[in-house]
Amino acid sequence: MMKSVFPAGVVTFLLLALASGCGQAGQNQYTAKASADREETQAPAEDKTPAAAPTGAPDVELLTQIYPGLDIENMRQTEAGLWEVSQGTAYGYLTTDGRYLVQGDLVDLQTGESLTENRRNDSRKQVIDQIGEEQMVTFSPEGETKHVIYVFTDVDCGYCRKLHRELDDYLSRGIEVRYLFYPRSGPGTASFKTAESVWCADDRQNALTRAKANQSVAPKQCDNPIMTHYVAGQQVGLRGTPLILLADGTSISGYMPAEPLEQRILAKGL
Fold first, then answer.
1. Which of 184, 207, 209, 215 lies at 20 to 30 Å from 117 by C-alpha?
2. Which residues are catalytic?
């Protein structure tokens, strides 16, 4: 039987995975229920052989006993020789004998580059790509679109409202803003219902602007992607709103004015 108490470092890695909202263990009461409801309506799946680790990977028996939800099939050997394991945007590194788990970012000391953060960027980009622009509320520049950002927003968040009030500053620099909704109060709350009403409005841009100006939005229901956005926010490691993602998945937590944001984008060559 596994011990109920793990070393502090192991607990830290697990908490990172949970905080990312990844996998069954990282779901809150709402997303867990949504997953359960979907499973009840689906036909029972055939038994499948558990995913195996890649050829040449270390023995993962001990690792999977502690973290059964890890993506073992997609383990990969890094430039440093360690084997990368992941759960959502949480990453760890396994020694070649399968005994030791290394936590923290893997950094190339020659370049100063965090190889782990690059992998997180890839994971976040995959989440966004799976949703698609048609499932977002987009504000585009009148002229050439030079850059694209994705913003997880809450209609009741003060800094989200500040960003939206300065929307023209972003658009004037050729930055297209694609909004996804993350009502921090959770599904079933007034904020969540407002987000749904914004999406279902005849003019989503106008409805979103009204909501962010603390003006009323006519209640309306329709098929909408708000829950998809909400779960995606957890998957990309959102801690608060607004959360800005650049085109390559780079994460910027909180509000950032248009000028420094543009400089950040240009510095990354995006």
1. 184
2. 154, 157, 160, 184
